[in-house]
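ARCHIVE CARD
Drawer: 12
Card no.: 0347
Subject: one protein chain, sequence and derived structure
Cross-reference: see card 0346
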Amino acid sequence: MNCPPVLSTGGLVFSMEKMEYTIIRSARKTLSIQLLPGGEVVVRAPNRMPKRDIERFLEEKRGWVEDHLAKLPELQPKLTDAELGKLARHAREVLPEIVAHFAPLVGVDYGRITIRAQRTRWGSCSAQGNLNFNCLLMLTPDDVMEYVVVHELCHRKEMNHSARFWTEVERVLPGYRESRRWLKEHGGGLIGRL
């Protein structure tokens, strides 16, 4: 049984058998589902499409929606001290290998590698070449880990975020923008697990 719609900033919010969703209508010709950070489900629909057609579409895609919602990192529970310790140990095994792989490709050396659980940074590079990484990187896709490592190694050449810096990142990782976007979309949710 559907609950009455509630007006939202982006459209109307409906509930369908324990699944809340927002409908945003426009001049489009097709239906689509978008999952926003935080788990909001948005259905984009043509202006004149009947609500029953939208509900049928959403019901057909329910399994896909539920699977993807379950995988959103920001919907996961807070990490315990034991889990953080395990992530840090795993990071101490994995990240130095990634650094060792990419440092010659960037053309730099580096100093000490430190792993911490941080609320504000994914990584940092000191003027002495010491690297610091967030243990929560172990919860990100491999390409995101590689992006953060390359990002910090490129700071060995450019201690800023100038055009030259980003050119260097792109030289080593041509697809870095997608990983950067993933961190912007999901990073806050991961850090929220601390």
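Annotation on reverse: Residues 1-15 have pLDDT under 50 and may be disordered. The chain has six helices and eight strands.
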